[in-house]
Design goal:
Distance between the termini: 52 Å
Number of domains: 1
Radius of gyration: 15 Å
Largest sheet: 5 strands, antiparallel
Length: 135
């Protein structure tokens, strides 16, 4: 018998799993991050508690962020085709693929945290993100 681990709020952690689709190639890698902080979205650099994953690119990519405390989270993904660890741009326009939880729309820059955020608590949260390309 396994005892459930409870967070400070008394709510057990929730698994967060993401499926990324519509990658244009299997070159490079997919970089992903999960954060609760609006000021750290979408690259998560300002959030030391953000969960980051790097996995090989494929036609469909499955990400498992593991169990996280209950809260409001947003996910961002990048198809880093050349494997340099960042989203390449030309004149500010992404040259590689990107995507966000809730399929948040991009208008003159990345979406706001609240447009991509999902509530995480209780049952496993399964998200689908469609990779987008501009160039």
């Amino acid at each position: 018998m396994t005892a459930a681990v409870l967070t400070a709020t008394g709510v057990p952690p929730t698994l967060v799993q993401v499926t990324v689709t519509e990658l244009r190639s299997d070159k490079g890698q997919v970089l992903a991050c999960l954060t609760t902080r609006a000021d750290a979205f979408p690259d998560c650099d300002k959030d030391p508690l953000a969960r980051k994953l790097t996995v090989p690119a494929a036609a469909e990519v499955h990400l498992d962020f593991g169990a996280v405390p209950a809260g409001r989270y947003a996910v961002s993904v990048i198809h880093d085709e050349n494997g340099n660890g960042k989203l390449d741009t030309r004149l500010g326009i992404p040259r590689e693929g990107y995507g966000f939880s809730r399929d948040a729309a991009v208008r003159m820059g990345p979406p706001k945290f609240e447009h991509a955020a999902v509530d995480v608590a209780g049952e496993t949260v399964r998200l689908a993100i469609r990779m987008r390309y501009l160039l």
